[in-house]
Amino acid sequence: ALVAVDQHDIALVREGAEVRLLLDHYPEATIRGRIKRIAERNMEATPAALSIKTGGALATRAAGGGSEQSQSPVFQATVPLSGSPVELRSGLRGVARIESQPRTLGWRLWRWVSQTFHFRTSHY
Fold first, then answer.
1. Cys bridge to 20: 24, 44, 62, 97, which one at CB 3.0-4.6 A?
2. Mean pLDDT, to the nearest integer, of 93-99?
3. Three-class DSSP labels, 3-56
4. Which helix (H) or strand (E) holds 94?
């Protein structure tokens, strides 16, 4: 499976982390795997199936040549799947729940504040 990870969450994701996939087509099934690889560069083009414009979850904007580009950097993680309880095929989409490292409440609060409010420093 290919999982799109927003840049705001990439610091929380690591290779070997457990992933639970919940596919739109099979809402009753949970598919498990582990992250094998995380791309070092953000995705240049976003697959059309992942765009909000086609029912996906990523906010995108039109890029040259009719392709879509995510509005914020997104990194691709590869999750090999085996022993799936359902028939898998190319093009299915869903949500990935990725196990992250434990963080303190203070760290989580600071992360929320820094994502919600954009601080600007003034140079006098």
1. 97
2. 90
3. EEEECCCHHHCCCCCEEEEEECCCCCCCEEEECCEECCCCCCCECHHHEHHHCC
4. strand 94-98
